[in-house]
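[INFO] parsing input record for D-alanyl-D-alanine carboxypeptidase/D-alanyl-D-alanine-endopeptidase
[DEBUG] input buffer:
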Amino acid sequence: MKMLVFNSTSDGEKEVSEGETALKDKIDDLLEDEALHGAMAGVSIRHADSGEVVYERNAHLRLTPASNTKLFTGAAALETLGPEYVFTTELWTDGDMDDPTLNGNLYLRGKGDPTLTAKDLASMAAFLREKGIKEITGDVIADDTWYDNIRLSDGIQWSQESEYYASQVSALTVSPDQDYDAGTVMIRVSPANKEGQPATIEVTPDNEYVEIVNRTKTVKSKKDDELKVERKHGTNTIIVQGAMETDEPVSESWIAVFEPTGLVSELFHQSLVKEGIRVQGSHTKIAETPEEATRLYEHSSMALKELFLPFMKLSNNGHAEVLVKEMGKVIHDEGSWDKGLDVIGTEMRRLGVNMDTVQLNDGSGMSATNFIPAHEISQLLFQVQEKEWFPEFRRSLPVAGNKERFVGGTLRDRMQGTEALENVRAKTGTLTGVSSLSGYVTTKAGDPLIFAMVFNHFLAEDVDEIEDQLAIILSEHQFSVRK
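[DEBUG] output buffer:
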């Protein structure tokens, strides 16, 4: 009979000797950490080649996984939509073009692209000008009906609504930068040159859709008067208050806007004006594009496999929720959370996940009422290895300790100087009292493992160190064979 024994020494494979620690004992000791007293921990570790369970503790306990939910959303999206899938934004008209006039309405139709920028909208306006259009006799109408009009996923509290990670979901939305935090604006605050003067505030993209209330002051020493940037509930009034010291660096904040479709309308109208195109009618209407309309232009996003880098590396919540609605639209012709989550459930069952033990209420993990056992997370990570799109899925996972933002992602500052460095590829997850880390690691002897760990109800600020130590244990040790 052969038995695998975990070797905790660093001198290579040896005969089993007194003092050698088995895998179970090693991890059990770690999970006795004081930070986990009174908390709940679910851990599942498998051989990546066979799926055989190496270690489990409370692995069938349903726990809130935070952003480990994105593993389920991401796998379902790659299976349903495919790595080459693109989102589009289109221009349509119900009129006719009589150079230099477009007689009728112009429709800006959004189909979920979370990477659309003000620059892309400017390109659309430039296209119209290149076609000789100088005037639109009707309205410029925004069409966001590709998805339903429910803007926030389950579990987001009103106090979080101005946070970039809780941005509203619209089929027609815009991102301020290359992180593609759709439905947000970036607020840059700089100290004035003189004490007593208000700070300078810049908004990206520049627009009049949001109103800035500047309650700041530049001071020599601000003491406890920290800078705060918040959007007033139910409005697009962004209040910036607090103090900045004269030599303080620029502060950058990303704030979610209220009803992001309106921001796109504002920015597109700005672009039309810059191109010298006059709109006789309204530019603030929102309505569905009529069936008899003619398509004039189509802008495509990057492929889904490229979108997966900001989505998974940076744990972008907005991307997750867009993918949920997109799957619902593509499969059930309804861009809603209900239909999208149905698709995720169906695809997970096909992958061998026991969805009878899983509850999902969103695609990002923001909901505290998402429940997934660690056993099912490791099962998913095992099964996806057989998929053609697995290389894209694996590439999207943060790489421990890699300082490149779109490589290391949320793990770029963790597990430095260990065998886990550039070895562990895993998805993080964080909410108050919730932390998770699940992914892939290769042991020192070259054995590929899958791990999933989910912690709930801890009172410590975080349990990152415990997660890291568990991953390091797996990376630094090796299996020996005892006959």
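[INFO] The longest strand covers residues 211-219.
[INFO] shutting down worker
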